Amino acid sequence: MNNNVRPATHRRLGLAAAVAATVFVGGCASTAEPTNPRDPWENFNRGTFAFNEAVDGALLKPIAYAYRDLTPQPMRSCIHNIFGNFDDMWSALNSMLQGRGHDFFNTLGRVLFNSTMGLGGCIDVASMNGAHKIPNDFGTTLGVWGIGSGPYVVLPFVGSSTLRDGTASLSSLAVDISPLTPIFEIDNIPLRNSVLGLYAVDLRESLLDADQLVDETALDRYSFIRDAYLQQRDARVNQRRADGGALPDYSDDELPDYSDDGTNEAAQ
Fold first, then answer.
1. pLDDT for 98-131, tens place per residue?
2. CA neighbours within 13 Å on the CB side: how many for 240?
3. Does residue 98 lie within any of the structural domains?
4. Is residue 158 part of a domain?
5. Is residue 168 in a domain?
6. What is the pLDDT of residues 69-101, one digit of tens each?
7. Distant-in-sequence, close-in-space partners of 17: CB < 8 Å, separation ≥ 6
8. Domain count of the chain?
9. What would the pLDDT profile of 9-57 be if each residue is shown by its tens digit?
10. Strand, coil or helix: what is 232?
11. 49 lies in a domain?
12. Host domain of residue 239
């Protein structure tokens, strides 16, 4: 083993390998009568979904509610905004990869504005001034490049994904270019693990309201979450494909004619 490779890199590669193994096993699974043609591994996915629900109900959701109850709202907002600033860096990179120059510069401006005027991202001053988030990720980038989503898959501890999105997450994690990169770069192991744990708790807390809505409206929780995920991902990719992404071109716009002839004719 190369001793020059950082332990954190080994852990990321191990996690990436676990995700890859899950996707591979999912590919070997089958179901007799899938309820959705995009979910041919439904039996496997429902099993993983049940496992995730059990872990979530026993561990993650109680911690998220305790975090919400015990942490003041301003502090929670600050923490959420800082992690959101990391997400914006990742979104900006993917907007650039998609050739969406306008989105890239807008998101880069958000990061710079929030990192300075927003005290390191603690305050989302960009949104307060009308520069709202433009969510993006590498799975969307692959979709814009023409790669199909592939079958739906539920990943352990992660949840809804597709073969394309799972591969995108695996790739970005393996090469250490993701929203978590700034956290992985922390050399202090206890601090790094604490920040990763806080990231997971903040993410789960942000989904509590949506989770409650699903409980109140869905007859089949699995199908509801699957269909909502696929529709949301399709809409994001299609919107970016249709909208091009180039900066506005004003080269063909005609300027007003302020010549004397035009003024005289208008006055007659």
1. 999 999 999 999 999 999 999 999 999 999 999 9
2. 30
3. no
4. yes
5. yes
6. 999 999 999 999 999 999 999 999 999 999 999
7. none
8. 1
9. 555 555 544 444 444 444 454 445 788 999 999 999 999 999 999 999 9
10. helix
11. yes
12. 7-70+137-246
